[in-house]
Amino acid sequence: MPYSKDKQQAFQAAQQGTHQAKDIYENIVKDDPDYGVHLKRLKNEVNEAVQQITNALEVASDTQRDQLQQFQDDLQSIVSDINNE
Known about the structure:
Layout: H1 3-27, H2 35-57, H3 62-83
Helix pairs in contact: 1-2, 1-3, 2-3
């Protein structure tokens, strides 16, 4: 597979993983009886997205690197918010 295609696929995986984690986070309800299940799913999605970002950073262009850093910051905000609840 061409190098540039690897970069693009790695970036898209990180982007998708971050968006999925953010979607779960935005829809989680503390008073929901299934809150624990949703929280566990959120933690799994965040961990997976962090790994995808780490992988993407290994091959990212400078432009992608800036966006990947923003994804990391977004995920860190989610983690901080959850840990402070």
